[in-house]
Design brief:
alpha/beta; Rossmann fold; 6-stranded mixed sheet; 4-stranded antiparallel sheet; 9 helices; 27% helix; 24% strand; globular; binds adenosine-5'-triphosphate; ATP-binding; ATP binding; ABC transporter ATP-binding protein; nucleotide-binding; ABC_transporter-like_ATP-bd
Length: 294
C-alpha cells in the first residue's frame, strides 16, 4: 500500500444524524486543590470542526473529559444540543456523542470487528443482537479508516496506529452528531493523519478535537481555541489565531507564519535555535513543518 494515497470512503450507508451544537459555558474543573481548567467557554456550531490546541498540561484533555462526562465541572455547563450533558444519562449522551481518547484502557479479548460493533450499543436495547445493517456499518466504518483488512484480527495485538484507527471506526459506527477526539492522529503515520482529519472534515458531524500539530490544526479546523494554564488565551479562525507572537507567548518558540500558497491555510515554520543536522546555515524560511495535502 505504500506509495499510493490512502483511500477513505465516507461511510454513507446509514444516514448521519443532524450535527448538534456544543456549548461549553464558563467551565471550571479542579482535582483536589489543583485547578485544571478556568472559566473556559467555547461553542461549536453544527458541523464545525473546532481544534483545541495548547502546550502540554494546558488542560485540553481535562476539558474534553468534562465534555464527555468523566470530569464534572465545579462550575459552568456543557450543553449538547441545548441539553446539559451532565443531566443526561450516559446512554442518552452516547446516542449523540462519540469519543476517541488516546488510551481507553481496553485489553479485551475481542476481534477488531467486535470492538467496532460496540459503537452500536447505545442504539440498541439490552438483548438486541447485531443485525445485517450493523455488520454493513462496521465494514463501512473500517473501510473509512483504511482498516478493512484488520476486521478479524485480535484488537489487543494491533499496533498503536492500527488501534487508533479502529477506535475511530468504532466512533463512526456510533453515528454521532458530535465527535470528541483527544489527539486522534497520535500514533498515525502522515498519510493516515491526513486521511483521518480529511474524513473528519467531510463528515456532517460537529467535532471538538485536541491536536498538537498546529499545521494540521490550521488546515483542518474551522476555528481554534488555544489553552494555556487551563484558560483560553485565543480563539477564532486559524489565520487569526496562529500568529508568531502567540506562538512565542504560549509555546515559547520562535516561528514564522505564512499563508501556504497551495492550501491557503496558515503554515507555521518553527525556527530551532541551532542549524539542522547536515546544514551549514540557519534554517531557510518555509522549510519546516508538515504541509497538509490540498
Ligand atoms: N486528576 C488529576 N489530578 C491532578 N492533576 C491533574 C489531573 N488530571 C490532570 N491534571 C493536571 O492538570 C493539567 C492539565 O492536564 P491535561 O491532561 O488536561 O493537559 P493537556 O493539555 O491535555 O496536556 P498534554 O498536551 O500533555 O496531553 C496538568 O498539569 C496535569 O498534570
Amino acid at each position: 500500500m505504500t506509495g499510493s494515497p490512502v483511500r477513505t470512503a465516507r461511510p454513507e450507508h446509514l444516514a448521519w444524524p443532524e450535527a448538534v451544537e456544543l456549548g461549553v459555558e464558563a467551565v471550571t474543573l479542579t482535582a483536589g486543590a489543583r485547578r485544571l481548567v478556568r472559566e473556559v467557554s467555547l461553542t461549536a456550531g453544527p458541523g464545525e470542526v473546532i481544534g483545541l490546541v495548547g502546550p502540554n498540561g494546558s488542560g485540553k484533555s481535562s476539558l474534553l473529559r468534562a465534555v464527555y462526562r468523566v470530569l464534572r465541572p465545579d462550575s459552568g455547563r456543557v450543553r449538547v444540543d441545548g441539553a446539559d450533558a451532565w443531566g443526561l444519562t450516559p446512554r442518552e449522551l452516547a446516542r449523540t456523542q462519540a469519543v476517541v481518547v488516546q488510551d481507553p484502557g481496553m485489553d479485551l479479548d475481542l476481534t477488531v470487528r467486535e470492538v467496532v460493533a460496540m459503537g452500536r450499543t447505545p442504539h440498541k436495547r439490552l438483548f438486541d443482537g447485531d443485525t445485517a445493517e450493523d455488520a454493513r456499518l462496521v465494514a463501512e466504518s473500517l473501510a473509512a479508516v483504511d482498516a478493512a483488512g484488520l476486521a478479524d484480527r485480535p484488537f489487543d495485538r494491533l499496533s498503536g496506529g492500527e488501534r487508533q484507527r479502529v477506535l475511530i471506526a468504532r466512533a463512526l459506527t456510533q453515528r454521532p452528531g458530535l465527535l470528541v477526539l483527544d489527539e486522534p492522529t497520535n500514533h498515525l503515520d502522515v498519510r493516515h493523519q491526513l486521511a483521518v482529519l480529511g474524513l473528519l472534515r467531510e463528515l456532517p458531524t460537529t467535532a471538538l478535537v485536541a491536536l498538537h500539530d498546529l499545521n494540521l490544526a490550521a488546515y483542518y479546523c474551522d476555528r481554534l481555541c488555544v489553552l494555556r494554564d487551563g484558560a483560553v488565551v485565543a480563539a477564532g479562525p486559524p489565520g487569526e489565531v496562529l500568529t508568531e507572537r502567540l506562538l512565542a507567548e504560549v509555546y515559547g518558540v520562535v516561528a514564522e507564519v505564512a499563508v501556504h500558497p497551495r492550501t491557503g491555510a496558515p503554515q507555521v515554520t518553527f525556527l530551532p535555535a541551532g542549524p539542522p543536522a547536515g546544514a551549514a546555515g540557519p534554517v531557510p524560511a518555509g522549510t519546516g513543518g508538515p504541509v497538509p495535502a490540498g
